[in-house]
Design brief:
249 residues, 4-stranded mixed β-sheet, 4 strands, 13 helices, alpha+beta, Glutaredoxin
C-alpha cells in the first residue's frame, strides 16, 4: 500500500484538524511540513494553493473538512460522523460554522497586531516545527512574506478590530451547544468537538507540538492563561486529554 502523506503547517489550527483526525483513527502516515515554497506545490497538487493536503489512495485531497470526509470513507471506525442522520447533519453544520466563523478570527486575534509590533514573534510562530533553516528563510523573506500572509488570510485593521468579538461569539455558541454528555452533538465525540477544540488550540495551547517558541510575549501568555481558565477553555483541554493522541505515527 502506498504511504499516506500529509503536507501541513505545524502551527496551523486548521491543519491540526487533519492531524487530529488521522491520529484519532490511528492511521499511520508521514507528515511533511512545508515552508515558504508551499504555494506552487499546493497548486500543483490540488489547484487550491492551501494546506493541509492529504495524499490518500492516489488522490491529493485539500481542505481539512474534505480530508476528514475522505478519512471517514477510508476508515469508518472510530467514527467522527455520528451514525444518526439528524445528529450527523448537526455535527457537519457546526463544523462548517466553526471553520467559517471561529477559525479565522482566532488566527487574527493571536497574530494580527504582532505583524506591526513584533515580527520576530510572527516569524518564530509561523515557522514552529519547521527547523532553523525554514525560520531563517522566513526571516529573510518577511518583508514580502508578511504582507502576503496578511492578504491571504484577510488580516487588516477591520478584521483585527472585529476578531475578539467574533471569537467571543464562537465561544458562546460552543457553550450553548454543549449537551449534558459534555459533547456538542449527542453523547459521543464527533467532528464538531474536534473542529471546535482544534480551532481554539492557539488560544488555549493544549498541544505542545503547536506551542509557539519561548519566550512568548507576556500579552500572549496572559491571554492563554485567561482562556485556559474559562469554561470553554477547560472544555478544550478536556477534549484534548480524552481524545487527542499526540503524534503516535
Amino acid at each position: 500500500m502506498a504511504k499516506i502523506v500529509l503536507w501541513h503547517f505545524p502551527i496551523s489550527h486548521f491543519n491540526e484538524k487533519a492531524r487530529w483526525a488521522l491520529d484519532w483513527k490511528g492511521i499511520a502516515h508521514v507528515r511533511r511540513a512545508l515552508s515558504l515554497g508551499y504555494l506552487p506545490r499546493a497548486l500543483w497538487a490540488t489547484g487550491r494553493g492551501t494546506l493541509p493536503i492529504l495524499f490518500l489512495e492516489g488522490q491529493a485531497i485539500g481542505d481539512s473538512t474534505r480530508i476528514i470526509e475522505a478519512l471517514e470513507d477510508f476508515q469508518p471506525d472510530p467514527p467522527l460522523y455520528p451514525r444518526q442522520e439528524s445528529e450527523r447533519r448537526r455535527a457537519l453544520e457546526l463544523e462548517d460554522f466553526f471553520d467559517e466563523e471561529l477559525g479565522h478570527p482566532v488566527r487574527t486575534a493571536v497574530l494580527g497586531r504582532k505583524f506591526a509590533t513584533d515580527p520576530d514573534f510572527i516569524v518564530g510562530t509561523l515557522s514552529t516545527g519547521m527547523g532553523k533553516g525554514a525560520e531563517r528563510a522566513m526571516r529573510v523573506a518577511f518583508r514580502a512574506f508578511g504582507p502576503f500572509y496578511k492578504m491571504r488570510h484577510k488580516i487588516d485593521a477591520t478584521s483585527i478590530e472585529a476578531a475578539p468579538r467574533q471569537v467571543a461569539a464562537g465561544l458562546d455558541r460552543i457553550a450553548a451547544e454543549l449537551q449534558p454528555s459534555g459533547y456538542l452533538v449527542g453523547d459521543r465525540f464527533s467532528v464538531a468537538d474536534l473542529t471546535a477544540a482544534a480551532l481554539l488550540a492557539p488560544l488555549v495551547a493544549p498541544n505542545p507540538e503547536m506551542r509557539p517558541p519561548e519566550p512568548m510575549p507576556n500579552a500572549l501568555e496572559m491571554l492563554i492563561e485567561k482562556w485556559r481558565a474559562e469554561p470553554v477553555g477547560t472544555w478544550v483541554l478536556e477534549m484534548y486529554r480524552r481524545h487527542r493522541p499526540i503524534n503516535p505515527s
